Amino acid sequence: MSRTKLTVVLSQAQGKNPAKRALEESITAALLLENGIDVSIVPSLYDMDANHTGRLYLEGVRGDMVVLSWMYPRATFWMLDRAGIKGHYGENQIAKPTDEDDEETAEPEQSKGIGAVNVPDRKIYCLDLRDHSDHRVYLDEVKRIAAECAAARASKGPLLQLGLMSAEPPASAKTFRPEELLAPTGRRWYPVIDYSRCTNCMECLDFCLFGVYGVDSLDRIVVENQDSCKKGCPACSRVCPEHAIMFPEHKTPAIAGAPVAGPSGLKIDLTKLFGGGDALALAAAERDTELVKDGRAAVGLSVGIPKRQASKPQGPKDDLDKLMDELDALEI
């Protein structure tokens, strides 16, 4: 693998949907004909564990990388970061087809998260394969990214370029055969933390009673035991006050990693609000369901949300509080 080439990784969809497979094959075939691009196929990034050959390959890749997957880019990027496959977020220019029912996109809010650590000087671009059915859209964007990355390398000067050219990629990045990268995986379910939004408040650690979360050597929240998470349960995502916890395979976009638009990007439908429910109550009910399945006692809202209990001093209002105040003011 040449350091002057752009690495493109296509993460296959879960299952064997023929339309999805056809798009994957069309993209791969087109990219194989392009100079300056190395393309590889791996199973679903979400399903690969730390010992999977595809993961080992990704850990060995150096330089800029494009990852195409059937997930929101935000979820893909932070999933890779959690696996130690780090870089700076590369913005893509693929315009998703508009829906006249879609809400107007708000201005992105200022990042206040704790951020990633030990980030190398490279970019990782994440493309969502659900955005278009035409493989040429992705081919054109990868070619644009390749040109952008080449221009960035050129701007760093000849000495740095020489260093990049002379550095040998690790053996793991050049010895795996394609069939090894596609070794079968099992379905998994676990949360992914967006550290650009996470403020390290530890509410997820307090709320989850299944040992999923922990802290690292820097006292930062981490998903410590991924496979202790209860399949299908997104409760901790609803509790997170910064919308920093994602479940990439969840059917609700805001929980699955869709862009969070401004300060009102709530994870609960207005229908639930009008029905008298709220995100915390729903999360507590989901957690209780899993506790009972494990033969444990339900705890409701009495455990794990100390910052929001009625007995605690009133703190700054979150987005849900503000929206409820606005609804009350309407007198409906």
Report how far apart the termini are.
Answer: 63 Å
Low-confidence stretches: 99-106, 161-173, 262-276, 309-316
Q: How many domains is the backbone divided into?
A: 2
The main sheet orders its strands as 2-1-3-5-4
Strand content: 5-15%
What's the helix-strand series?
Answer: EHEHEHEEHHHEHEEHEHHHH
The overall pLDDT, averaged over residues, is 83
- Tell me, briefly, the overall form: globular
Explain what the structure shows.
- It is a single chain.
- Helix content is 34%, strand content 11%.
- It contains 12 helices and 9 strands.
- Strands 2-1-3-5-4 form a 5-stranded parallel beta sheet, sandwiched between helices. Strands 6-9 form a two-stranded antiparallel sheet. Strands 7-8 form a two-stranded antiparallel sheet.
- Helix 1 packs across helix 4.
- The model is unreliable at 99-106, 161-173, 262-276 and 309-316 (pLDDT under 50).
- The chain is of the alpha/beta class.
- The longest helix is centred in the middle third of the chain and has 21 residues, at 135-155.
Structural key phrases:
alpha/beta; 5-stranded parallel sheet; 2 domains; two-stranded antiparallel sheet; 332 residues; globular
